[in-house]
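Changelog note: in this version the structure field was regenerated for every chain. One regenerated record is shown below for reference.
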Amino acid sequence: MVNENEAFVQRFLSGEIGCEPFLQVYQRQAGLRQCLDDLYNEAVTRGAWERLNPPLDMPEKYMDWIGRCANVFFRRAQLYDFVYRLFVGAGREQAKYCKYEEEHRFSLDAVPEYAAGDSAVRYLEAVIFPSLPQELPASRRAALCRKKIKEAFHIEGRHYPRWVQEAEWPFRDGKPMRFVGQKTEGERVTYTFADDETGAVETIEQYY
Protein backbone atom coordinates (compact mmCIF):
# COMPACT_ATOMS: atom_id res chain seq x y z
CA MET A 1 0.00 0.00 0.00
CA VAL A 2 1.35 3.44 -0.98
CA ASN A 3 1.82 5.75 2.00
CA GLU A 4 0.48 9.30 2.10
CA ASN A 5 3.77 11.02 1.28
CA GLU A 6 4.60 8.71 -1.60
CA ALA A 7 1.09 9.25 -2.97
CA PHE A 8 1.77 13.01 -2.79
CA VAL A 9 4.99 12.51 -4.77
CA GLN A 10 3.07 10.53 -7.37
CA ARG A 11 0.44 13.26 -7.69
CA PHE A 12 3.25 15.75 -8.30
CA LEU A 13 4.84 13.52 -10.94
CA SER A 14 1.50 13.11 -12.72
CA GLY A 15 1.10 16.90 -12.98
CA GLU A 16 -1.76 17.13 -10.48
CA ILE A 17 0.36 19.17 -8.05
CA GLY A 18 2.56 22.02 -9.27
CA CYS A 19 6.23 22.61 -8.54
CA GLU A 20 5.77 25.58 -6.21
CA PRO A 21 3.22 23.82 -3.93
CA PHE A 22 5.41 20.72 -3.89
CA LEU A 23 8.47 22.72 -2.80
CA GLN A 24 6.45 24.49 -0.11
CA VAL A 25 5.21 21.21 1.34
CA TYR A 26 8.71 19.72 1.16
CA GLN A 27 10.11 22.63 3.16
CA ARG A 28 7.34 22.41 5.79
CA GLN A 29 6.78 18.70 6.28
CA ALA A 30 9.42 16.31 7.58
CA GLY A 31 7.38 13.36 6.31
CA LEU A 32 7.85 14.36 2.67
CA ARG A 33 11.55 14.99 3.20
CA GLN A 34 11.88 11.53 4.72
CA CYS A 35 9.98 10.05 1.79
CA LEU A 36 12.49 11.43 -0.71
CA ASP A 37 15.36 10.20 1.46
CA ASP A 38 13.81 6.72 1.48
CA LEU A 39 13.35 6.75 -2.30
CA TYR A 40 16.95 7.86 -2.71
CA ASN A 41 18.26 5.06 -0.49
CA GLU A 42 16.15 2.49 -2.34
CA ALA A 43 17.45 3.75 -5.68
CA VAL A 44 21.04 3.49 -4.43
CA THR A 45 20.43 -0.03 -3.07
CA ARG A 46 18.95 -1.11 -6.39
CA GLY A 47 22.02 0.21 -8.22
CA ALA A 48 19.86 2.72 -10.09
CA TRP A 49 21.61 5.72 -8.52
CA GLU A 50 25.33 6.17 -8.05
CA ARG A 51 26.10 7.56 -4.61
CA LEU A 52 28.56 10.42 -4.96
CA ASN A 53 31.34 11.20 -2.51
CA PRO A 54 30.54 13.63 -1.01
CA PRO A 55 26.85 12.87 -1.72
CA LEU A 56 25.90 16.17 -3.35
CA ASP A 57 22.95 14.44 -4.99
CA MET A 58 21.28 13.59 -1.68
CA PRO A 59 17.71 14.96 -1.56
CA GLU A 60 18.17 17.53 1.20
CA LYS A 61 21.20 19.17 -0.42
CA TYR A 62 19.85 19.01 -3.95
CA MET A 63 16.38 20.25 -3.01
CA ASP A 64 17.95 23.19 -1.18
CA TRP A 65 19.91 24.05 -4.32
CA ILE A 66 16.81 23.72 -6.50
CA GLY A 67 14.83 26.03 -4.22
CA ARG A 68 17.48 28.73 -4.67
CA CYS A 69 17.60 28.56 -8.49
CA ALA A 70 16.80 32.03 -9.80
CA ASN A 71 15.33 30.97 -13.16
CA VAL A 72 11.81 29.63 -12.54
CA PHE A 73 11.69 27.45 -15.65
CA PHE A 74 15.08 25.88 -14.89
CA ARG A 75 14.03 25.37 -11.24
CA ARG A 76 10.84 23.56 -12.20
CA ALA A 77 12.55 21.33 -14.77
CA GLN A 78 15.32 20.40 -12.32
CA LEU A 79 12.86 19.68 -9.52
CA TYR A 80 10.67 17.42 -11.63
CA ASP A 81 13.61 15.58 -13.16
CA PHE A 82 15.22 14.95 -9.77
CA VAL A 83 12.08 13.65 -8.10
CA TYR A 84 11.13 11.57 -11.14
CA ARG A 85 14.56 9.89 -11.23
CA LEU A 86 14.32 9.15 -7.51
CA PHE A 87 10.86 7.64 -7.89
CA VAL A 88 11.65 5.47 -10.92
CA GLY A 89 15.09 4.59 -9.57
CA ALA A 90 13.42 3.21 -6.45
CA GLY A 91 11.44 0.80 -8.63
CA ARG A 92 8.17 2.70 -8.87
CA GLU A 93 6.26 3.03 -12.12
CA GLN A 94 5.20 6.44 -13.34
CA ALA A 95 4.60 7.93 -16.79
CA LYS A 96 6.69 11.04 -17.31
CA TYR A 97 4.92 14.40 -17.32
CA CYS A 98 6.87 16.50 -19.83
CA LYS A 99 5.34 19.95 -19.27
CA TYR A 100 8.22 21.42 -17.23
CA GLU A 101 10.91 20.12 -19.56
CA GLU A 102 9.05 21.51 -22.58
CA GLU A 103 8.46 24.88 -20.88
CA HIS A 104 12.12 25.14 -19.94
CA ARG A 105 13.21 24.31 -23.49
CA PHE A 106 10.83 26.95 -24.87
CA SER A 107 11.95 29.54 -22.32
CA LEU A 108 15.60 29.21 -23.40
CA ASP A 109 14.63 30.86 -26.70
CA ALA A 110 11.61 32.88 -25.62
CA VAL A 111 12.19 34.35 -22.13
CA PRO A 112 15.12 36.67 -21.30
CA GLU A 113 16.80 36.15 -17.94
CA TYR A 114 15.61 39.55 -16.74
CA ALA A 115 12.03 38.21 -16.88
CA ALA A 116 12.60 34.71 -15.48
CA GLY A 117 11.94 35.45 -11.78
CA ASP A 118 8.82 34.45 -9.86
CA SER A 119 6.83 37.68 -10.17
CA ALA A 120 7.62 38.08 -13.86
CA VAL A 121 6.83 34.45 -14.69
CA ARG A 122 3.43 34.75 -13.00
CA TYR A 123 2.73 37.65 -15.37
CA LEU A 124 4.03 35.74 -18.39
CA GLU A 125 1.83 32.74 -17.59
CA ALA A 126 -1.25 34.90 -17.02
CA VAL A 127 -0.87 37.38 -19.88
CA ILE A 128 1.88 36.66 -22.42
CA PHE A 129 1.83 32.89 -22.91
CA PRO A 130 -1.97 32.62 -23.44
CA SER A 131 -1.71 35.24 -26.20
CA LEU A 132 0.74 33.15 -28.27
CA PRO A 133 -0.98 31.23 -31.10
CA GLN A 134 -0.37 27.54 -30.52
CA GLU A 135 -0.41 26.80 -34.24
CA LEU A 136 2.76 28.83 -34.85
CA PRO A 137 6.04 26.94 -35.27
CA ALA A 138 8.12 26.95 -32.08
CA SER A 139 10.70 29.39 -33.46
CA ARG A 140 8.03 31.93 -34.45
CA ARG A 141 6.21 31.53 -31.12
CA ALA A 142 9.50 32.18 -29.31
CA ALA A 143 10.20 35.27 -31.42
CA LEU A 144 6.70 36.60 -30.81
CA CYS A 145 7.04 35.90 -27.09
CA ARG A 146 10.31 37.87 -26.91
CA LYS A 147 8.68 40.77 -28.75
CA LYS A 148 5.66 40.84 -26.42
CA ILE A 149 7.91 40.66 -23.33
CA LYS A 150 10.01 43.60 -24.53
CA GLU A 151 6.87 45.64 -25.11
CA ALA A 152 5.24 44.71 -21.80
CA PHE A 153 8.43 45.31 -19.79
CA HIS A 154 9.22 48.60 -21.59
CA ILE A 155 12.57 47.34 -22.92
CA GLU A 156 14.41 49.58 -25.37
CA GLY A 157 17.57 48.21 -26.93
CA ARG A 158 19.72 46.54 -24.27
CA HIS A 159 18.45 48.70 -21.41
CA TYR A 160 17.30 46.13 -18.88
CA PRO A 161 18.39 45.12 -15.35
CA ARG A 162 21.39 42.85 -14.86
CA TRP A 163 20.17 41.03 -11.78
CA VAL A 164 22.84 39.69 -9.44
CA GLN A 165 20.28 37.48 -7.69
CA GLU A 166 16.82 36.32 -8.75
CA ALA A 167 14.93 38.62 -11.11
CA GLU A 168 12.60 40.72 -8.91
CA TRP A 169 10.77 42.86 -11.42
CA PRO A 170 8.22 45.07 -9.59
CA PHE A 171 4.61 45.48 -10.77
CA ARG A 172 1.92 48.13 -10.31
CA ASP A 173 -1.74 47.31 -10.93
CA GLY A 174 -0.71 43.99 -12.44
CA LYS A 175 1.68 45.52 -14.98
CA PRO A 176 5.50 45.61 -15.10
CA MET A 177 7.06 48.89 -14.06
CA ARG A 178 9.64 50.54 -16.36
CA PHE A 179 13.31 49.96 -15.56
CA VAL A 180 15.13 53.26 -15.04
CA GLY A 181 18.63 52.14 -14.13
CA GLN A 182 20.90 50.43 -11.62
CA LYS A 183 23.74 51.57 -9.39
CA THR A 184 26.45 49.51 -7.72
CA GLU A 185 27.91 50.52 -4.35
CA GLY A 186 30.30 47.93 -2.99
CA GLU A 187 28.39 44.65 -2.80
CA ARG A 188 24.99 46.34 -3.08
CA VAL A 189 23.20 46.89 -6.37
CA THR A 190 20.16 49.18 -6.38
CA TYR A 191 17.64 48.89 -9.22
CA THR A 192 15.21 51.75 -9.86
CA PHE A 193 11.83 51.35 -11.55
CA ALA A 194 9.06 53.81 -12.37
CA ASP A 195 5.34 53.66 -13.08
CA ASP A 196 4.74 55.95 -16.04
CA GLU A 197 1.04 56.34 -15.26
CA THR A 198 1.36 57.44 -11.63
CA GLY A 199 4.97 58.58 -11.43
CA ALA A 200 5.59 56.18 -8.55
CA VAL A 201 9.19 55.03 -8.11
CA GLU A 202 10.31 51.75 -6.57
CA THR A 203 13.79 50.46 -5.77
CA ILE A 204 15.05 46.89 -5.40
CA GLU A 205 18.29 46.09 -3.58
CA GLN A 206 20.35 42.98 -4.23
CA TYR A 207 23.79 41.90 -3.03
CA TYR A 208 26.71 40.06 -4.56
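Spot check on this record: The radius of gyration is 20 Å. The CA atoms of residues 25 and 32 lie 7 Å apart.
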